[in-house]
């Protein structure tokens, strides 16, 4: 295989996905490429990926490589982080099999991940899954003991201006199939008018569908300036010790934000906020709820998520994957029914028209004459 194209380079895949152009090569540093990252690269219609890290490390069966392979995106894997010292945006590189060249100089060498290699490595991941599950459960239990104050009243929830009392709250997270699920529940949004909460990039998803978020919650690393300016309230998720790296960005935009120091994930504190401020129902879309989801986020357990879901209980409806619940099919009999329904009023109007009546009588006379012959 021989490829030659300009590159976009970034150590964070989510940042690179916003800049990469059609036909370019994406140079990333992403261990265990997850489903969301892979889909964002596919949307950029890239030609190939050069990964400084391991696209499949063997810890768990991440879905990203298979998604990229299905779209025939060439993957040169584990070339080493040194390429970040040699390359910059818009450099034109050449990939020849498993070697990376810049101006005919070899600057990196890795492994080609084709369909067979991905299949083999994924099988090894499944073989290791029981060990990973064991570690995941232990970490979840250990941290749940430390973070139990998260739901026992020890966590102080800051005052919010958004009114949740007696309303539904829809929390949108940039997770698996979040766009498809969001398009599926548009009738629900239109009818119930829930409080719309975007967790980081989930806010942009709401904007894309024509909805302005009532609240944005997160560390502010994957949301657009446009969404931050348009939303009604910003909540910056800070570390438990109060440090809030995301606040600097908000201040640079001249905006105000509420700081929420808490352990766990931003989607956890979004759910907890909606619950504590009296939401009647909490609908979560695109959220992370299983081991693979959390491993793809780089987390070794899900203590805070387990605790929050334990607390809010029946108020929570998880809409993740709702697009798979029911897919209507347009049957032929329905099409004929629509056609007949549309023709019926046309026929009535035509029959009552004098000119049409004359035409019908002429046709009847012509038919009789023909029958006489």
From TrEMBL:
User: Which part of the chain is the SteA-like C-terminal domain?
Assistant: 320-371
Write down the superkingdom of origin. Bacteria
Query: Mind listing the UniProt keywords for this protein, alphabetically?
Result: ATP-binding, Kinase, Membrane, Nucleotide-binding, Transferase, Transmembrane, Transmembrane helix
Keyword ATP-binding tagged: yes
Keyword Transferase set for record: yes
Residues annotated as domain Thiamin pyrophosphokinase catalytic: 193-233
InterPro entries referenced in this protein's UniProt entry, alphabetically: Put_SteA-like, SteA-like_C, TPK_catalytic, TPK_catalytic_sf
Q: Which SUPFAM superfamilies would you find in this protein's record?
A: Thiamin pyrophosphokinase, catalytic domain
Task: Tell me where the transmembrane regions lie.
Answer: 334-353
Pfam families reported for this sequence: SteA-like_C, TPK_catalytic
Q: What is the name attached to this protein's record?
A: Cytokinetic ring protein SteA
| UniProt organism field | Tepidibacter hydrothermalis
């Amino acid at each position: 295989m021989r490829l030659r194209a300009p590159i976009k380079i970034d150590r964070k895949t989510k940042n690179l996905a916003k800049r990469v152009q059609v036909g370019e090569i994406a140079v990333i540093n992403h261990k265990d490429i997850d489903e969301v990252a892979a889909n964002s690269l596919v949307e950029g219609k890239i030609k190939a990926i050069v990964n400084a890290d391991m696209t499949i490390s063997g810890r768990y069966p991440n879905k990203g490589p298979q998604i990229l392979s299905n779209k025939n995106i060439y993957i040169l894997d584990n070339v080493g982080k040194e390429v970040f010292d040699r390359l910059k945006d818009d450099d034109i590189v050449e990939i020849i099999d498993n070697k990376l060249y810049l101006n005919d100089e070899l600057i990196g060498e890795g492994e080609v991940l084709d369909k067979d290699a991905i299949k083999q490595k994924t099988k090894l991941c499944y073989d290791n899954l029981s060990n990973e599950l064991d570690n995941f459960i232990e970490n979840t239990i250990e941290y749940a003991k430390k973070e139990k104050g998260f739901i026992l009243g020890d966590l102080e929830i800051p005052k919010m201006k958004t009114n949740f009392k007696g309303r539904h709250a829809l929390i949108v997270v940039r997770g698996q199939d979040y766009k498809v699920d969001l398009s599926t529940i548009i009738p629900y949004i239109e009818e119930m008018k829930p409080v719309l909460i975007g967790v980081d990039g989930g806010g942009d998803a709401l904007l894309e569908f024509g909805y302005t978020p009532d609240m944005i919650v997160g560390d502010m690393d994957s949301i657009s300036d446009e969404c931050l300016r348009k939303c009604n309230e910003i909540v910056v998720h800070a570390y438990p010790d109060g440090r809030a790296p995301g606040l600097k960005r908000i201040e640079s935009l001249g905006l105000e934000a509420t700081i929420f120091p808490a352990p766990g994930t931003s989607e956890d504190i979004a759910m907890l906020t909606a619950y504590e401020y009296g939401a009647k129902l909490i609908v979560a879309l695109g959220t992370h709820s299983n081991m693979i989801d959390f491993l793809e986020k780089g987390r070794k357990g899900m203590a805070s998520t387990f605790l929050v879901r334990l607390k809010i209980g029946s108020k929570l409806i998880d809409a993740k994957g709702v697009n798979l619940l029911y897919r209507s099919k347009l049957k032929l009999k329905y099409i004929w029914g629509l056609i007949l329904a549309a023709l019926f009023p046309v026929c009535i109007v035509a029959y009552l028209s004098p000119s049409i009546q004359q035409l019908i009588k002429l046709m009847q006379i012509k038919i009789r004459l023909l029958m006489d012959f």
